[in-house]
Amino acid sequence: MNFYTAKADTAAERRVAVDDMILTKTMPTAAGSRMLDGYMSLFDAEVITRLENAGYAIAGKTDVGEFAIDLVGETSYHGAGTENGTLLSASAEAIKSGDVPAVVCFDVNGSVCRAAAQNGLVSVKPTYGTVSRYGTIPAACSGETVSVMADSTAKCREILDVLAGHDDKDGTSLSEEQCALVKTAAAKPAAKVAVLTNFCEAVDDAVSAKLDAAKAALTAQGVEICEIADEKIAAARAAWNILMCSELCNNVSRYDGVKYGYRTQNFTNIDELYTNSRTEAFGELLKTAILFGSDNLSTENYMKVYDKALRIRRVVCEAFEELFKAYDAVLLPACSRLAYTEAETKADKYLAFEENQYTAPASITGLPAVTAGSVQLIGSMFSENMLFETAKLLAKEGE
Amino acid sequence: MNYETVIGLEVHVELATKSKIFCSCNAKYGAGPNEHVCPACCGMPGMLPVVNKRVVDYGMKAGMMLNCHINRTTTFDKKSYYYPDLPCAYQTTQWFAPVAVNGTVEIETSKGKKNIRIKQIHMEEDAGKLVHDIAEDTTHVDFNRTSVPLIEIVSQPDLSSAEEVEAYLERLKMLLRYAKVAECAMEHGTMRCDVNLSVRPEGSDQLGVRTEMKNMNSIEAIKHAIEYETARHIDAIENGTEVLVQETRRWDDIKGKSFAMRNKETAGDYRYFPDPNLMPVVIDDAWYDSIQASLPELPEEKYARYTEQLGLSEYDAAQLVKSIALCECFEAAHAVCGSAKDAANWMISEIMSILNQRKMTYDMLNINGTSLGELIKLVMDGTVGRANGKKILNAMFEDASIVPAEYAEKNGYIMSNDTGLIEQVVKAAIEAEPKAVADYKGGKEKAIMSIFGRCMKELKGNCDPQTLRTILIDTINKM
Ligand SMILES: [Zn+2]
Questions:
Q1: What does the alpha-carbon distance between residue B441 and residue B155 come to, in Å, rounded to a whole number?
Q2: Does B82 touch chain A (CB under 8 A)?
Q3: Could you tell me the pTM of the whole model?
Q4: Taking burial as the number of CB atoms within 10 A of a residue's CB, which of A252, B142, B196, B337 is the most buried?
Q5: Is the pLDDT of residue B434 over 90?
Q6: Domain boundaries, chain B
Q7: Separation of B213 CA from ligand 1 center, angstroms?
Q8: pLDDT digits (tens, 9 = 90+) for B74-86
């Protein structure tokens, strides 16, 4: 686990940490990978500039899993953070220990959502395109989103307000008017919420209890709850794994030991330099993702696999659009259990690509998601404020 | 049996934009190693590509010049391969929806006119350059060229000889230079060419085994390579000297031979997929129309206008339309001086010969056409003598900011109308050349030229030759 500290003299409420997927000029950024050990960026991420301009101090960096595609950070080259065999999220620990009230995280494969749910924190993954990705380590560009984890809904919202806004340096950045919706859209809690029942079947008792508590809290405060099974949205996981791994394979291909980063000592020609540098520096989960992604994009598989995943993305988007005609938000678990053990990740190497079934719907569509009360709420584009208001109802019940 | 050669070309042309395709680095050729680079074009993580709109403008313009259909929604895709000159290990190109498709280019050869179909034009980024240091036994990478915008013009296999290929390449150069989208200088590597070639019996509609020669960078080399490959294919077919296989070959211009490349250099799956960081570019009517409106008059149209409306000779018009720079200079000069014939005359007998002397291409012409028009006017109305006019023109080549009238004044190139002064100079010259005077009087008409020359020199050329001649003859005759 890694945690740099800087500017400790700033008032606690103005301190923010960022995770190690976000590039900083003054601190190294390694993306949890030996490949980028000690890498110093020549520039700050846009979100760093925005935080500093708004008077926040970057108190330090929290460790992430290699390129942030794992469960909660266990694949970092620093090793997994654990307590009694249970996996810890570095960002969640930074908040729980009182070091910072909020961490700006890069959500690639749902780790932010899972960490918030497992630690009773609040997180927001805003609408894709409302927070600039300039200066973030590219992993799965079509769905990765700068997110916020915090100790309260109010803090989460406060930081998102600082981060959201158009950026010319990011070609996928939405217009200033659209980004402003994230900050200023009318804030009433959801009137009708759909619970996606087929996502609630494989969860353990602890998660079930959290879901029941959430439903009860919402009902108690006049929110209408409906139970819906949606098989189309359930297809998001398989499609997201294809898209994520393919994009990841392409994005990490630049780390070849030639220009910067880890370089093997063991080579006699350029092919060995590439192969050995990557073999020695990359971890197992990433290598699996690279192989899977590379295979998806082969000429033979492109139409059969990758193009199909793109079409499923559209189907999932349409399924959500259909739901949002009748409901304001969708409620589903953020993970199947409230803790992962190191032993089970060793036993099931691909757990991260199964657990992401809960986060893939928001990742693949770019829809906003708020995690609170250990459950996840997804809304239509720019509905962050509605989701925050609904999340507050969950928190009230918890108190 | 008679054979025909079937050739298709993939021509890479660097677009002449000021900045690179996805970052704001200078795209100009010729800087020191790695002077035009930034974290984006060096492939450092965290920089996101943002399309330089000017590149799309130029891509569309090239498409329109080649009579293509413009795709109103055009997308960028990633092409993956590992090579040290490719910093991200992928090249951003257009695979699924290129900017322009289905065009034609008309060429003219000794066999007449022919249409060459264009399959597509796509935009992409260039790669860097490897510099091998033999003394040190190391290789260095120069990223100046990475992300410089390129278009690749893919023809259908409609070409059938080295002569046609040359005509096609010359025509492409001319059209793209007219549209000012590219320099197209093979010697700078701003135009490069892949040649796909096969041979089949004349009249057959089946294609033979195709070989590809990559990265050809001179028309002479391309012509040699086509002749060599055609002969090699025919020899293989007729005499069974070797078995032809579909492959990429390298042309060695020094040896005058093509060689099969190692399989390793050519194999590979590029794993194309749409770049999620680049939104599809949607070309609306206003954008389309603005590019359409900016298209230049074609060389043929200029030729017709110059001969029919401006009354230029066919020869003069043909000379001028060789280069858009010559045309623009001529047209601006004509607008100022009012005489197309004089403007054309200055362009062809003075400017083009100065360019040749200085070993400059026509496109390198840096004379301001308006200034040239002013100069021509000064000579036409007798303010400046023609010989002094040429001196001013030469000075203008050195300093484009010269205003001809001011320069003439400052350097004493204004014609004198003072007959008293001319008579004085004539008198002195006659006294200095008694022999020439005697010869002239004795019937040798040519003898007068040396006296005339002496006078002109004394007058610094600022005298109307006719006036001087009249005064000189009158003076001698009166003696
Ligand atoms: Zn650059």
A1: 73
A2: yes
A3: 0.89
A4: A252
A5: no
A6: 3-286, 297-410, 419-478
A7: 30
A8: 999 999 998 989 9
